[in-house]
Design goal:
Length: about 100
């Protein structure tokens, strides 16, 4: 049996459209109704991605960063180079 590593689970919130694991979503709807969504990171496409390294900062990042559209990403496990290759965006930044 082949030992396949599972994708890391990321928390997402923000505003604007994204494509995560071949599914198109509108983040503002999810953020307003549920606060966030947690999904395995197989592939993420967004115009602007902001990776937040601290969970407490992640909860309030939308209050300080007013960029639109923006996809805020948090992972309990550190995102490694292999994980970052799965994130496709013209603008990736870290907080």
């Amino acid at each position: 049996m082949q030992n396949k590593t599972r994708p890391k689970v990321v928390l997402l919130k923000g505003n604007g459209p994204i494509i995560i694991n071949s599914e198109m979503m509108e983040l503002i709807t999810i953020t307003l109704s549920h606060g966030l969504v947690g999904l395995p990171l197989e592939e993420l496409r967004a115009e602007k991605v902001i990776i937040v390294k601290d969970l407490n900062a992640f909860w309030d990042v939308h209050k300080t960063v007013k960029a639109k559209p923006a996809c805020f990403v948090y992972s309990y496990d550190e995102l490694e180079e292999e994980d970052l290759k799965k994130i496709h965006s013209d603008d990736i930044s870290y907080i």
